[in-house]
Amino acid sequence: MPDPTSEQDYLAAYDIHQFDVPLTTVDLCIFTLLEDTLQVLVVKRADFPFKDRWALPGGFIDVHRDAELESTARRILAAKTGVSSPYLEQMETIGNAHRDPRGWALTVVYFALVPVSRVKVQTTRVAEAKWAPVEAVEKWDLAFDHANLLTRAVARLRSKVGYSTLPIHIMPETFTLGELQRAYEIIMGRKVDKKAFRRRIEASGLLEETGEKRQDKTRPAKVYRVKAGMETFFYTRTI
User: Fold this and answer.
1) Residues 134 and 221 in one domain
2) Per-residue pLDDT tens for 102-156?
3) Residue 122: CA atoms inside 13 Å, Cβ hemisphere, count?
C-alpha cells in the first residue's frame, strides 16, 4: 500500500485484522431476591463450547448495534430478562489465553440488580434459563471461568451494600422498612442492627411514605417507596 497522504486515506485503507483480535464478550451477574435468598440468573448453553453446561448470561459485542460497552450489557440484559433499566454496574475486565477454548478472550463483567416481579426470563439461543440460589451456583461446575466471575461479583455486591442503599434496586415498588432490612441481611449474609439501620435509611432521604400500612411480623408497618428521580446513596461508613 502506498504511503497515505492524509489521516483520512490512512483510516480508509486500514485493516483492523492486521493484528490478532481477541474474542470480546460481556458477561452479566444478574441478581434478585427470591424465596428469601439471593439468587442469580443462569443459562444452560445450547451450543459448543460447554454445550449443556450452566453459565452466566453473556454475549459478543455487536460492533454494528452497540455504541458502547454498556449498550452491549443492556441489550443482553433485556434479551434475557425483559428488563431495560435496572441497576447496572461495570465490575471489571478479565482476559487471558485460557478462559475460552476458542482462543484468547476477554470479557467485561457487569452485575445487575432487578426485582423478580419485573422479570420474565427469556430462553432465546439458550437451552434453559432460571434463577438459582447463589450459594448453590457457587458450587456448580460453570462454563468458562464463570464460577470465578460469580464469586467476584458476589463479593463486590456484599461489600458495596455495606456502605450504600443498593438493595433498593432489588425491592418491589413498595415495601416496609422491615422488608428492606431483611433484603440487606440476605445479601450481606448477616444480621443488621435495627436502630442503626433505620437511622441510616432516614439519613439517605431516598424514601417516602405511601400512606399505607402493611402487617409486619408483630404489628402494622408503614409502607414506603423510592422517591422519584432518586439514586443510590453512599455512606461514609459501613453498616
Assistant:
1) no
2) 999 999 999 999 999 888 887 666 678 899 999 999 999 999 999 999 999 999 9
3) 14
Domain count, the chain: 2
Boundary-marking domain end, from 120, 146, 172: 146
**Burial category of 205 from C-beta neighbours within 10 Å (exposed 0-12, middle 13-18, buried 19 and up):** exposed
Same structural domain for residues 82 and 194?
A: no
- Whole-number Å distance between alpha carbons of 106 and 149: 12
Q: Pull the grid cell for residue 138.
A: 457457587
Question: Which one, of 78, 76, 111, 118, lies nearest residue 187 by Cα?
Answer: 111
The verdict on 81 and 129 lying in the same domain is yes
CB 165 within 8 A of CB 197: no
Query: How much is the pLDDT for 124?
Result: 64
- Give me the mean pLDDT over the 18-43 stretch: 95
Grid coordinates 441510616 are at which residue?
200
Predicted TM-score (pTM) of this structure: 0.92
